[in-house]
Amino acid sequence: MAQMTPEEMAAQKEQCIFCQIIAGKRPAFKVYEDELLVAMLDISPAANGHVLLMPKEHYPIMPVVPEPVLAHLFKTAKGVSQALLKAMLVSGTNIFVANNPAAGQKIPHFLVHIIPREQGDKVDVFNLRKIQVNPELMQELQKALSGNLHLIMRDKLAEQGLLEEAQISEEDLLKLIDTNPKLKEFLKANIDKLDLVLESNPQLNMMFKGKDLVKIKAHLQLMPEDKQYKAVGELLKGKKSHRKDVEKEYVDKVEKEAAGLPVPKEPEIIAEPEPKDYEETPEERQLREKLSVENVEPEKLEKATESKIVEPLKTNKKAKRKVKKELDEPAQEEVPSETQEPEQKPIEKESPDNEPEEAADLDAIADLLGGRK
Amino acid sequence: MTCPICDMIDDDKFVVYQDKLAVALLVPNPASEGHIAVVPREHHAILEQVPDNVISHMFIIANRVSRAVFEMLGAQGTNITVNNGIPAGQASPHVMVNIIPRKEEDGIDFMWIPSQPGPEEMRALATKIKDKCDYIGHEVIKEKPLDLDKKNEIKQAAEEIDYRIKQLERVP
């Protein structure tokens, strides 16, 4: 994610064609508008009825859009999709977002494409290609991603009562920083004004609230830059370094400084962050290379493993079905693993229309009233 | 009823995140490494069947996954797509939001061939679509149950009007 200064943002906004349309300086075929959003027809559409739905505020890419706006936007996208099905008499729609030019974004104003589709039209670019991936790589990806997502989604899990506390423990936070090279770089770059940065970013603020910033700073400063990807491998292997002791010393030092006590000079703490006996094993090296995506060559992987993925899945399915029959019970709610959540809670079922009779009554009354007018 | 996605939700092998409403899965035959699908936990065939709150939740997950993919895998961009309906290329009988990590020159191309309809045609289309879009958000109002007092008031009002009209009709 590129960090933009407010001036850059203002300049980009000035030139943004959609901001000009929203400000009323350019004409457009608007089809929907509310306080937050506007939808208009694309002037060079993929198919007739191609709609662009966007927030009125200028956001370059999706990750910087506030979540309440996103929630409202995609609810509306569903509505627009429904409207297109009816208006264009088609039986399908594509909803499409591109973030950054690498993904095909042309104008830096976040927007959602909603494209009506019918059988046999010429818009066949959305069929996803399928590549084979090394099962081991998949496993590593799954581990790394599930660990990270569990931490990133903590507030939502807590909202649903799946976690007792939304706060991340300090150890988990350090783990998150270690497995997330970009975040670490960002924090490191802003290490002097960490407090300010955290205040200005709501999500980071939530994560770092009530944490010992001195300790985190110590952790950041003690990590050499070239160990970024190794950190992921280390975490996956469950290896622990002696970093904790070093951190403790650093914290002691800072506290002593604060108290005005003389600090013993220990330059070797920062000079030798890693324990000497630590060496990268061949397996770890492999793992690290796999995880750094630059090194992944799809073609090679494809040749190496053609059908390995499919088979275990099939057998697994059968086993699952058997178990299901035996138990004669619907499978419910598997709670995210390892650390917490002793109880299993059933899924709450939504019942949107619980008073159909009343609604019908009201409709009838509304008709009556309307008819008299 | 067999849905491969529902089976994958039960099977922990591909799950990278789950809660009460939605699940994020690693796609076994991905479009690129790190391709993730966010699916509703309950089985829904098309997007229009999914309740609004679940949709919002799914896309919030998609957004955070996309952020994680930027940061963890060093992706240069992400695509978020929903193929809704068989003509749109929907491959499974379960709604899914795809998050596809992208790099320059990775061989994926979503660029369609643009057409150039004339202004008259565009205006006609806009009117047609706008008509249907006017209903957006109105379901929300319908969902709110009216309290009984108000309902009775409306009923009374309706009866009163009826009564007066009947009176009028009786006048020779």
Compact summary:
The complex is a heterodimer of chains A (373) and B (172). Chain A has 373 residues and is an alpha+beta fold.
Structure description:
The complex is a heterodimer of chains A (373) and B (172). Chain A has helices at 6-15, 17-22, 67-87, 135-152, 154-159, 170-179, 181-189, 194-200, 202-208, 213-222, 228-237, 243-259, 268-271, 282-291, 298-304, 310-327, 356-372; strands at 30-33, 37-41, 51-55, 92-99, 112-117. Chain A is an alpha+beta fold and 373 residues long. Chain A has a five-stranded antiparallel beta sheet with strand order 1-2-3-5-4, with helices on one face. In chain A, β1 (30-33) and β2 form a beta hairpin. The longest helix of chain A is centred in the first third of the chain and has 21 residues, at 67-87. Chain B is of the alpha+beta class and 172 residues long. Chain B is built from five helices and five strands; from the N terminus they run αβββαββααα. Chain B has helices at 4-10, 52-72, 119-133, 138-143, 148-170, and strands spanning 15-18, 22-26, 36-40, 77-84, 97-102. Chain B has a five-stranded antiparallel beta sheet, sandwiched between helices. In chain B, a hairpin with a 3-residue loop joins β1 and β2 (22-26). The N and C termini of chain B lie far apart (67 Å). The relative contact order of chain B is 0.11. The model of chain B has no long low-confidence stretch (mean pLDDT 85). β4 of chain A pairs antiparallel with β4 of chain B, so a sheet runs across the interface.
Mean pLDDT of chain A: 72
**Contiguous runs where pLDDT drops below 50 for at least 5 residues of chain B:** none
Measured by residues with Cβ under 8 Å of the partner chain's Cβ, the largest interface is: A-B, 126 and 111 residues
**Radius of gyration of chain A, in angstroms, nearest whole number:** 27 Å
